[in-house]
Predict the 3D structure of the following.
Amino acid sequence: MTDLLRREPHVISAGLELLAGAAEGQAARVTRVDWKPPMPGTESDLVRVLADRRRAAANALAIRRMLAARAQLVDLLPARDALGLRPGEFLHAGPPTSWERAAGPLRGALMGAAVFEGLAADPQAAAAVAERGGFALDPCHAHHAVGPMAGVISPSMWLFVLEDPASGRRAYCSLNEGLGKVLRYGAYSPEVIDRLRWMASVLGPLLQAAVRAGGPVDVTAILAQMVQMGDEAHNRNRTGTLMLLRDVLPSLVATSFPASDVSRTVSFIGGNDHFFLNLAMPACKLALDAARDVRGSTMVVAMARNGTDFGIQVAGTGDQWFTAPALTPRGLFLGDYGPADANPDIGDSAITETAGLGGFAMAAAPAIVRLVGGSVADALAATRRMYEITLAEHPLFQVPALDFRGTPAGIDVTLVARTGILPQINTGMAGKVAGTGQVGAGLVTPPAEVFPAALRALAEAAAAPAEPA
């Protein structure tokens, strides 16, 4: 103690700015620690969950399963064949909802999909059918599928079929339409429907023939490469799209399809930087589904939004959704659009962040900050901050700017509740009026309320301890 008093004082300040400022005023060396109390009302639930003897082993098992999963593109199929969808049945992004609660972009996508399926002559007639209860709605996640933005999947839409070769588990996603006036952003104009018909009659069957002839495409390997080459697999997929095209091009040109169809397909994929997003999403879905149903685990296995609600699912609580009103992203807008035009957050694409990509890998994609607003320093800081709420670092998704450190992976409900740090998501923005399409892109977080709700359920489950599944 005597020796300590002879040294120059060094004050560590944890959230007490008044004391830190006073110490600096007396020429003391001060280090500020970014600390705040746990989320309000979570203290007793945190104590119960942290005392659960299953937690450490359960989280280790969940993260091990997630990191071990691999994804291969093995086929393409219409949703009627892949998922058994029947006429009038539609899947959508996010937690469960209804036509009455559906946001504008989801309504617009459902209206357009109904016209595409021949269930209505025009979007207004489709809305009338929906209002009479003529559509059956279910979340994509309930069918091992994911959908970007509105996420609508109808029986005639073609899907990517991804498979984990070790387990045989599969995940599905629709094909990417491009940007702007597209169904997933709630647009339903004639050109949107015409594009969907071409995708169903030419693009899907042609890619199916190429994949079946050329063999599986290693999607996980592409993801690992693209993170090192400037993509974060949510809002930037340029490298992934070009690597996919490189892999399937030999089989595409060898098919018996007309040269004009092959040419248009190659042009469509090559001109659509986001085409690979619809492969990244089911690859992440496969990995996170591997971590489901591990009793005692506090790891998040899904974050999803339907334009009205934001929901999360946790490995230790089965298929239960914990929801709160979705927030509206903040970022950059297209043309004359502004904040008043943007719908609250929507889409299953936050599955990428849940798996350690997207906003969690922004340090790997410095170019993305120009799209979502901010600086390269902000991108680095965002990724570093996510390490504080995650269980591991992904060994395959390595960030060059962080000395090839793996991206933060495995969001832990207890760490979010203890630190108050919310997952960072970068995303597109849909117009809130049905039929508008995309209005911008930006950054958003989940509503904070979903994590205390999940923590409460975990605390209740901790009352009956059991071994991890």
In short: Residues 71-282 form a domain with the Enterococcus faecalis V583 fold fold (CATH 3.90.1710.10).
